[in-house]
Amino acid sequence: MDSHQAKDLVILFDLDGTLSDSDGIHLKVFQDFLAPHGFKVDEEFFMKNIHGGQNVDIFGRLFPQMTIEEINVMSEEKEELFRSIVRAGGALRPVPGAVEFLQWLEGQGIRRAFVTNAPRANAECMLEALDIARYGEALVIGDECARGKPHPDPYLEGARRVGAPMARCAVFEDSPSGARSGLAAGACALIGVCTTLTPTKMKEEIGASFTISNYSDDNGLREYILNLRQQIMQHHQGEEGGGGEETKNRTVEKQEVVMMDNDDVVVASAEAPVDVVAPPS
């Protein structure tokens, strides 16, 4: 890593619903998988009970009588069904413009990593199907961290893996649990990918600083990223040079994020000193 990269912006991407247009496949898999157990999985049920969650939590809520061993068996059966659909080809597509955006980031020299709650086998299957694995320096799996999303652990691990503080990491997310994970970790910006949620919900209820429906180059996303990058670089240049009165008088704010589960019960909170970077105007 050169000295420029050591002070530069880093992008941490979720996968499902953020880079891969996979929510429709997950919905169909859960519909087929849970129907024999008496569950009718429509979009409302999916968003409330499944979207963005880990299998151990999803099945634990739906089948509270099951042991962890039974939940693990059920989870693997469901995930193998998902992977078989992806491997068959044609069903999984990238979110429009995602591949071109990853290529643009690479051309700009902006480093990237993937951070997901998907099991490793699923994540690797999706990355291979979309042919985008080479655009990420690291792949962080929620199940392999002490806690998955919505806790901050996966994004903190992503930052650690690329050697950057979270104050220089922007997070791309589509789900409430993933967004809360990124915010709790102290991301400098949260870009909400509105493949399932509305921009209003992403901004007003979850706290996204910028929202997109896809990665089209005419939605202002690239300009936003370049402005954010410039702010971060200028901030660190100011710190190195003493920063004048503005930097001398600058205080490091504390960000406290309270994360809620689907029943609005507090499941975690994080309080840590973070460098607060205002969104570009």
TrEMBL record:
Annotated InterPro entries: Beta-PGM-like, HAD-like_sf, HAD-SF_hydro_IA, HAD_sf, PGP-like_dom2
Gene3D superfamilies: HAD superfamily/HAD-like, Putative phosphatase, domain 2
Lipid biosynthesis is among the record's keywords: no
Organism domain of life: Eukaryota
One Pfam match: Hydrolase
Sorted UniProt keywords: Carbohydrate metabolism, Magnesium, Metal-binding
GO MF term list: catalytic activity; metal ion binding
Chain ranges passing through the membrane: none
SUPFAM superfamilies assigned: HAD-like (SSF56784)
Keyword Lipid biosynthesis: no
Cofactor: Mg(2+)
Protein name as it appears in the record: Riboflavin kinase
Origin organism lineage: Eukaryota, Sar, Stramenopiles, Ochrophyta, Raphidophyceae
